[in-house]
Amino acid sequence: MIRQQIMDALELRMKAIQGSDYQTDIGRDVRVWNVSAINASDLPVLNIKDTDEEIERHASDEAWKVTLSCEISVTCSGNTAIQDIRKMIADVYCAIGADGTLNGLAIKIIPEMDTIEREDEADAFVKAIIQIKIIYGQTAWRE
What we know:
By secondary structure, the protein is α+β, with helices and mostly antiparallel strands. It has helices at 2-15, 82-97, and strands spanning 30-32, 45-57, 63-77, 108-118, 125-139.
């Protein structure tokens, strides 16, 4: 199924965020659809979620153009310097840009937006959220 293959490839891209090609090593702890509480000792944690999927049918109705919305979030300590959070966001974009078709599974990836917000009232956690759209083709009625 193409959607699962795309999510697996995106997870691998995020796990690559380590070493000299990047400013941070947020690829050390990558999770997919994590809904469990995050322990402070685990930070930073990168979490990937695939959310909405829009399907555009072609005239022949034999092929679809699919737009998959994804959210990539990085949760870090409230003590993390804002400059470091910005580096984490930049690293996510760089990792995606290193293979903008996810090994040929996608037609293209479009950045939508990013934001930085406090996760709780005690300011113990800060979260950077990056939203992207992944465009891919699919044969009608098949995954």
